[in-house]
Specification:
Layout (H helix, E strand, L loop, with lengths): L2 E6 L4 H17 L2 E6 L2 H7 L10 H19 L16 H12 L5 H13 L7 H10 L5 H6 L3 H16 L7 E4 L2 E4 L4 H9 L9
Parallel strand pairs: 1-2
Antiparallel strand pairs: 1-3, 3-4
Helix pairs in contact: 1-3, 1-5, 1-9, 2-8, 4-8
Length: 207
């Protein structure tokens, strides 16, 4: 079974926009997602990207507004019509919640999709335990054991390890996918991800 290593943050618009297609690709190709939630800001900065707050108005308007609108329409992913109210909340709890689910043996694919969707469609606070509990219940997962350990040193160490691994492997942002070590940055490359599952591309990464 081929693995798709999936680096992302649980507040990422583009991770949400590509999430449904990613799960469809997994089902069609009988492969598996290896979830690696990351702390996004240090990853972006380590890749020589400017912090989000330092980018020009035009850059933000294009990449984090117009591009989101177009790709959401293209992928048929419904969105709220404004930046999520809770978008700047810390990622430690929602990312840790996903890691806890994986560590407890759950398939986290649908859970992650619903967390992303709640943030970008329902304007939900992804850093709220009650919100995460409701989402987990909606996909048949008991949230209590996950909330108990999501902020633990053990789970947050995995979160930090994922972030450091993303930096080491030159991840630029969220979402990023790896197939047998070959990196595909952005949900706009999901069609290439699926092709690589069937027929790897020539050449290698990193260069």
């Amino acid at each position: 079974m081929t693995d798709i290593e999936y680096f992302y943050s649980t507040h990422s618009a583009y991770a949400y926009i590509g999430s449904k297609l990613l799960m469809e690709i997994v089902n069609r190709n009988e492969c598996r997602i290896i979830h690696k939630p990351i702390d996004l800001n240090p990853v972006v900065e380590a890749s020589s990207g400017q912090p989000f707050g330092h980018r020009s108005d035009a850059h933000r308007a294009y990449f984090f507004n117009r591009e989101i609108e177009r790709w959401a329409e293209h992928r048929e992913a419904s969105l709220i019509n404004h930046r999520p109210t809770w978008h700047d909340e810390p990622l430690t709890l929602p990312n840790g919640f996903v890691i806890a689910a994986v560590e407890n043996g759950h398939n986290a694919d649908q859970l992650v999709h619903e967390i992303l969707k709640a943030h970008w469609l329902d304007d939900a606070n992804h850093n709220d335990p009650e919100t995460l509990s409701a989402i987990a219940h909606s996909v048949g997962i008991d949230p209590a054991p996950l909330l108990k350990i999501a902020m633990s040193d053990e789970i947050q160490a995995i979160h930090q390890t994922n972030t450091e691994e993303a930096i080491r492997r030159s991840v630029f942002g969220s979402p990023t996918y790896f197939i047998d070590g070959d990196m595909f940055y952005g949900q706009d490359h999901l069609e290439l991800v699926e092709r690589a599952l069937d027929k790897p591309y020539q050449g290698s990464w990193p260069k």
